[in-house]
C-alpha cells in the first residue's frame, strides 16, 4: 500500500525548494500554485506536487518566459494536457526575438565603436551643451 506524504507548510516548502516564502505567496496569488488548505494557525499547506511546479516555474523563467506565459502552460497542464506543443512554439518565438535583439545590439556596438574612434577632448565647455561629441551624432 502506498502511503501519501502529508502536505507541507509554506515555510518547509520554501526551505526545501530554495524559493522565498514571499515568492511562493506571490505565485499563489497569480494562480501558479494552489495551496491545499491552511493550518489552524493560517499557514498555507501544499501538496508535494508544489516542488515539481516550482522547478518548472524556475526553469521556464531562466528560458526567458514571463510568469503570465508560465501560468498559461500550467493551466493547460492542470486541464490534464501536456503544454509541450505550445511551449515549443513560444520558445521558437523567443529565438526569433533574441536574434532580433542580437542584431540591434550589434548595430549599437558599431555605433558606439564609431563614436569612440573619433573621440576628442573638448577644451571649451559651452553652457548649452552637455557633451558635444555625443550630441552631434
What does this structure look like?
By secondary structure, this protein is mainly alpha-helical. It folds into two domains: 1-82, Orthogonal Bundle (Multidrug-efflux Transporter Regulator, Chain: A, Domain 2); 84-117 and 129-137. The protein has six helices and three strands. A three-stranded antiparallel β-sheet has the order 1-3-2. Strand 2 (37-38) and strand 3 (44-46) form a beta hairpin. It is elongated and about 85 Å long. Keywords: DNA-binding, Repressor, Transcription, Transcription regulation. It comes from Aliterella atlantica CENA595. GO terms for molecular function: DNA binding; DNA-binding transcription factor activity. This is Transcriptional regulator.
Descriptive tags:
2 domains; 6 helices
Write a concise synopsis of the structure shown.
The chain is mostly helical and 137 residues long.
Which helices and strands occur, and which strands form pairs?
Elements: E1 8-9, H1 10-17, H2 21-30, E2 37-38, E3 44-46, H3 49-62, H4 67-78, H5 84-117, H6 132-135
Antiparallel strand pairs: 1-3, 2-3
Amino acid at each position: 500500500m502506498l502511503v501519501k506524504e502529508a502536505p507541507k507548510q509554506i515555510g518547509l516548502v520554501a526551505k526545501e525548494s530554495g524559493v522565498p516564502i514571499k515568492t511562493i505567496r506571490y505565485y499563489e496569488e497569480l494562480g501558479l500554485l494552489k495551496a491545499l488548505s491552511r493550518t489552524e494557525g493560517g499557514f498555507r499547506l501544499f501538496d508535494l506536487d508544489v516542488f515539481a511546479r516550482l522547478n518548472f516555474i524556475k526553469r521556464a523563467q531562466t528560458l526567458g518566459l514571463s510568469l503570465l506565459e508560465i501560468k498559461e502552460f500550467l493551466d493547460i497542464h492542470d486541464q490534464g494536457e501536456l503544454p509541450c506543443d505550445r511551449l515549443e512554439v513560444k520558445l521558437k518565438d523567443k529565438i526569433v526575438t533574441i536574434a532580433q535583439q542580437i542584431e540591434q545590439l550589434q548595430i549599437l556596438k558599431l555605433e558606439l565603436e564609431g563614436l569612440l574612434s573619433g573621440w576628442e577632448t573638448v577644451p571649451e565647455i559651452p553652457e548649452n551643451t552637455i557633451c558635444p561629441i555625443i550630441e552631434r551624432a
